[in-house]
């Protein structure tokens, strides 16, 4: 599967991974439908957003 639908599924999978809440059946289904390149890009974007939110929180607290 490719295209915007696959990437959005990857983003959703990464979001669940960040939260740590995931059913085994959902994980197995996603592995069959999502390519590794989409997961890598979505993971990097998710990590970047997380770091930026942490920096924003620190800046708001220390200002």
Structural features, described:
The chain is mainly alpha-helical and 63 residues long. It has one domain. Helices cover 84% and strands 0% of the residues. It is built from three helices and no strands. It has helices at 4-19, 24-33, 36-62. α1 (4-19) crosses α3 (36-62). The protein is elongated.
Helix content: over 70%
Radius of gyration: 14 Å
Query: What general form does the structure show?
Result: elongated
**Count of individual helical segments:** 3
SS-derived structural category: mainly alpha
Structural domain tally = 1
Give keywords:
single chain, 63 residues, mainly alpha, 3 helices
How would you summarize the topology of this molecule?
Layout lengths: L3 H16 L4 H10 L2 H27 L1
Short overview:
The protein is mostly helical. 84% of the residues lie in helices and 0% in strands.
């Amino acid at each position: 599967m490719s295209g915007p639908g696959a990437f959005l599924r990857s983003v959703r999978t990464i979001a669940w991974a960040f939260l740590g809440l995931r059913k085994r059946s959902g994980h197995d289904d996603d592995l069959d439908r999502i390519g590794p390149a989409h997961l890598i890009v979505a993971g990097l974007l998710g990590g970047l957003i997380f770091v930026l939110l942490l920096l924003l929180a620190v800046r708001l607290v220390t200002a």
